[in-house]
Design goal:
- By secondary structure, this protein is of the alpha+beta class.
- The chain folds into 2 domains: about 15-85, Arc Repressor Mutant, subunit A (Orthogonal Bundle), CATH 1.10.10; about 90-165, no CATH class.
- The protein is built from 7 helices and 5 strands, in the order H-H-H-H-E-E-H-H-E-E-H-E.
- A 3-stranded antiparallel β-sheet has the order 3-4-5, with no helix packed on it. The protein has a two-stranded antiparallel sheet with strand order 1-2.
- Mean pLDDT is about 85; it is low at about 190-193.
Length: about 190
Amino acid sequence: MALPSDYAGQACSLARTLEIVGERWTLLIVRDAFYGVRRFGDFAAHLGIPRAVLAERLRSLAAAGVLVHLPDRGPGGEYELTAKGTALWPALWALLSWGDDNYAADGPRRVFRHANDDAPLDPGGRCTECGQAVDVRDILIAPGPGLASAPGGDDPVTVALRQPHRLLLPLREPAAPAAAPATVPAAGAPAAG
């Protein structure tokens, strides 16, 4: 029997938050959205997540207002973080930093730097060079020392993340908007031309 996804009887904000982002895979999907992943197939290939689970998590994140689904951006559309989703960055940064400190024996797989001066961020998200609290849009993600010892991948996300990249920008070129269907002239009407 599956565990329920709500915390009945828990009226605190943490319980409500966990109902949105606490299910398996959800924070990794949000992390990848910060990395610039936008397409369903890219999420699936990078995470190795079952497609049905991914579809459900994306639907849930969109329903909660964390992601927005943009169906007009190519086959299957694209997903982007909303302002509500982007506000999750400090929590995600804290979890990434904690994991790097406690579980990255060879160093972090990815390092985060201030785009303005290329200095690393401290655990509080401040630039170690200028002392500024760095907005998520001004953060570069780059390969870290632990990447060399990590199992390799050849999916489009892993390949793209081998180069420094600013968070929230699409990792791949945005898909062209879906073309509007051609109109068919009514019977007997002259064709345009």
